[in-house]
Amino acid sequence: MSPGRKSYTFIGKSISRPIHGKIPDYTTEARPKEAEKGHKGRSRLKWNGSWLWEIGAVLLSIICLALLVAFLAKIHGTPYASWQYTVSPNTIVSVIITIAKASFLVAVSACLSQLKWNQYRGATSKPLYSMQAVDQASRGPWGSLDILFNIFTGIRMDVLTLTGASITVLALAVDPFAQQILAFPERTVLASNETALVRSTHGYNFTGHLTRWSGSISDTMVSSLLVGLAQHTDPLASQCPTSTCTFPGFISLGFCSHCEDVTKDTKQVCGPWSMSDPTAYSLHVHGYCNYTTPNGVHFMGEVNADAVPPTEEDVYLTYDYVYTDLLNNGTSYDSPLLYFVAASERRVVHWTRQNRTAPAPKPSISICRMYVCEQQFSPSRYIATDSSTHYSKISHTQELITSYNEKAIKLTPANGAEFLSKDPYDLDADTLSDLEFTLQGVFNLSGNTQNGLNSMNFVPIMQKRGINETMASIAASLTNNIRSTNNPLGENLQGEAFKSESFIDVRWPWIILPMCATLGSLVLLVGTLMMSKTQKVVLWKDSIIPLMMSQLQTTPEHEISSLKDVNKVNVLSRDIRVSLIQEEKEPLTFTEI
């Protein structure tokens, strides 16, 4: 080998090259002027040797979050149907969060990369492995988890490094949290293009009378009477075109009924019942009774037939009858539409010689009235799935006394009370008299059947259901008729219709994690920047050139080891072509060739 040359082994083969003096001093900042030639002006802004990229990234992340908050505030509570764009709100949120996340991770990665150099500048020495650990943390969540787990193995890290590792790990949850920010629940809102109606009336007039007091009520009123007798009356349903409606309270003209049970106060006088049957006569059973109600009505309890053939010791008699007696027979404008006493009984009574003088059991006796009244309905809420809400409910009623005044009906509240409604009532006299005439024909079962329905059909109805329920059903059915559209004097009261709609609901707590991660990256950047400035270290960050410079041999014109300007080092390193050469019995060295 010629003098002045040195031998190297390069990837298994030997080469020789001239020696250019001793290794330069790495502690100085000066470098040969030749190394600067051709590189002036290549990088006016010192991107690599400053925090400009990281500051810009954090600012971009903060701007994204500000835009996200503004966007969410704008769409919060708006109907989803009003969203007219092809891209869904969730997509926009995802894009903004992704940009923000990518931006703050740029800063976090750079800070961790710089901290791996800064940790060796203090007075306390650190394990060599710490550089490897922090470098891995700067590359992603797995290395950051390793940093956090190393706390339990005794390897200490500074607060900034742990902060950066924590932010990197938490960033994994940013995207799932972003997907939870928006929800699209259902809510009930006013349907402005729909109309909800409930019927009311302050008058009734049937113009199809044949003659006065002829009982010629309208066909719809006849139908209502039949429905009421059969107790198939359903409340008049409100009209709701949607799933939910609300209706105001209102007052309407109607018909009311009241039945008072006077069974206990009715006097009963029973005596021996005689008929052609000798056994019954010989027992002298007291099956023949006269009754006197508190208001002075007298009637007799009748026995229809023997339940079973009598014997010398037993008599089984069947009580099976319905009795009514009008207390206001004929039309009278200053009395209720219907006022009568009713008695009903259906049972078999057993007499023996021992109890033959026992009186027959009292029938159920009631005094009933049907009259014109005011009905006050409470505000109501209609729910399509709940049939009990499909009609307005009566909260209060007030009897109206009818009187004849100049061919017109005058209505006056009973007992000197005030009208519930401020609006006047209009009730035709002939209509009222015909209705009264018809009702009396239905309920008079004392043997005088007047015009109207066949009173015999009323017997089984009353026996099965009771007079009180029957009267209430008829009154409700007649009221439904005059409140319905069958009555030209009725009116529509407007309610409010509501519909269900999906709306955009922002769940603000789910944005806390992205905000904390972004603000944490800002704190980390400021802390790393201040530490680096205090220690006066070169901002090598993720560069590996400093490690190569410790084992790098270059020509004098490419001297790089003493440079501390990162930009200049990066520019100059582009012109240096090296190979990994191992000198005999020497460590691996990057050598310029």
TrEMBL record:
Keyword Heme set for record: no
Presence of the UniProt keyword Transmembrane in the record: yes
Protein origin, superkingdom: Eukaryota
Bilayer-crossing regions: 51-72, 92-112, 159-178, 508-531
Pfam family, one: DUF3176
Entry keywords, A to Z: Membrane, Transmembrane, Transmembrane helix
Name under which the protein is recorded: Uncharacterized protein
Phylogenetic placement of the source organism: Eukaryota, Fungi, Dikarya, Ascomycota, Pezizomycotina
